[in-house]
């Protein structure tokens, strides 16, 4: 697939519609259980601004920094959507590793990645990311996952990623963040919720999900996130995409 073909490329998203927060019992506190997994592709593509563009961007950067004979690791790979995309985009066989601590997510990922296994070596690891090794990786992707980890675990994980990356290796990180300015945070939140409503969520669904995510998804400010990356060893860090309270960064070893 040529570089120019990545953008019209659709993601492989399962069609089941997210209606989980329309009626009891919805996942509160929010967990990545079977009910969530069954509608996850629809949920995330309607809930994360520029989700398709972010994954296409991550695929471009992964292709640009991938080093032959090393691994591409997706932490919090969920249903394998990014790994399926990079598997179609890369023009040479690679080792693609997906890490997720939700078994139902990896069962969906296994199914989605079957065609990719014709070309690439695919490894799916069901474990908490902080227990995993990142040795011999040239690209680590962690999109919208760090935000679910306890704060003290995040720093340990980023240090482990930095240590595992080969020289010249790349971290592609996307996260929900918060503004350090309460008035801006309020405006961003209002606009983000309008985005969700535009994507078909009712106000009740939006409020219920927000409550379910409280103390489960804990965003940092962009400055705190950048500092955490610097404290992990990354010296070259740059932001690529930001819309509402969703940010994508790249960091180089
Ligand atoms: N400690 C942990 N260790 C491993 N996995 C975890 C952990 N905690 C949560 N997860 C997993 O992290 C993923 C977060 S979703 C990532 C989207 C994907 N990156 C995408 O680009 O489509 C984003 C969201 O739900 O907003 C889920 O699959 C969890 O099971
Ligand atoms: O931050 C939110 O309000 C979201 O809905 C993001 C999200 C997307 C998919 C699963 C969990 C949270």
Automatic annotation (TrEMBL):
Tagged with keyword Membrane: no
Class in the EC hierarchy, top level: transferase
Protein name from the UniProt record: Carboxy-S-adenosyl-L-methionine synthase
SUPFAM superfamilies: S-adenosyl-L-methionine-dependent methyltransferases
Transmembrane segments: none
InterPro entries membership: CmoA, Methyltransf_25, SAM-dependent_MTases_sf
Family to which the UniProt record says this protein belongs: Belongs to the class I-like SAM-binding methyltransferase superfamily. Cx-SAM synthase family.
Gene: cmoA
Catalytic activity: prephenate + S-adenosyl-L-methionine = carboxy-S-adenosyl-L-methionine + 3-phenylpyruvate + H2O
Transferase among keywords: yes
Organism of derivation: Floridaenema evergladense BLCC-F167
Residues binding S-adenosyl-L-methionine, per UniProt: 51, 76-78, 100-101, 143
Entry's EC annotation: 2.1.3.-
Coiled-coil zones: none
UniProt KW keywords: S-adenosyl-L-methionine, Transferase
Annotated ranges, domain Methyltransferase: 72-169
Function: Catalyzes the conversion of S-adenosyl-L-methionine (SAM) to carboxy-S-adenosyl-L-methionine (Cx-SAM).
